[in-house]
Design goal:
alpha+beta, 434 Repressor (Amino-terminal Domain), globular, 6 helices, 2 domains, five-stranded antiparallel sheet, 11 strands
């Protein structure tokens, strides 16, 4: 799993930047939508410049049109989750890490009440960022919960070989990685590296709650 932005639902719903403050309330607290757009625009341009890529090259790598990229970098439009997901994949970062990049700093201690929570009510998925990503830290920790009878499909990871350690806490879950299904029960630990699509699925009679360590 790669974090919120890369979540791909069976339905094709998309969220605009106006919902990002709801998805990551503690990451961009006290920042209005216009300021958030500008910060994301500056960060996206900075990431492209660091890579030494032209707009045309980034368009080719991400699948986002050159015209859209130009407008995003000028903060003329608000990015959609789909566009941000593709750009993060091209840059090799998760969307949650991008959100942290627009913050000025990060806290050493994060109480449970301060941990960002992202919900997708359409498929019954909730993700708590127990240890959010930060520029100086290599990993992050997520607490995830999936309602019964739900399936979440993810595209390729933002960085090939992204390391995951899933510790099952409650319920039942089947995780498919590289075409191989793994049934995970409470107390089990599933370790894997992502190089392609993967999925998480719960049976009709059980939800699932687990910790996910991403490095």
């Amino acid at each position: 799993m790669q974090g919120a932005p890369m979540l791909k639902k069976s339905a094709s719903s998309r969220l605009t930047i106006s919902h990002i403050r709801e998805i990551f309330p503690d990451m961009i607290n006290n920042i209005d939508d216009a300021s958030t757009d500008l910060r994301i625009a500056q960060r996206l341009k900075g990431l492209r410049t660091e890579k030494g890529w032209s707009l045309d090259e980034l368009a080719s790598r991400s699948g986002v049109s050159r015209a859209t990229l130009s407008r995003l970098e000028k903060a003329e439009v608000s990015p959609t989750t789909s566009a941000l997901g593709r750009l993060c994949s091209a840059f090799g970062i998760t969307m949650s890490r991008l959100m942290m990049m627009i913050e000025d700093d990060f806290a050493a201690m994060i109480s449970r009440s301060e941990q960002p929570v992202w919900r997708d009510p359409d498929i019954g998925f909730r993700r708590r960022s127990v240890s959010p990503p930060a520029g100086a830290l290599a990993g992050e920790v997520l607490e995830c919960q999936i309602e019964p009878g739900a399936r979440i499909d993810y595209d390729a990871p933002p960085r090939p070989g992204l390391e995951h350690h899933l510790v099952m806490l409650e319920g039942k879950l089947e995780v498919t990685v590289a075409g191989v299904g793994h049934r995970v029960a409470p107390g089990d630990c599933l370790r894997f590296q992502l190089f392609g699509p993967n999925s998480f699925e719960t049976p009709p009679d059980s939800s699932a709650r687990y910790l996910l360590f991403i490095v």
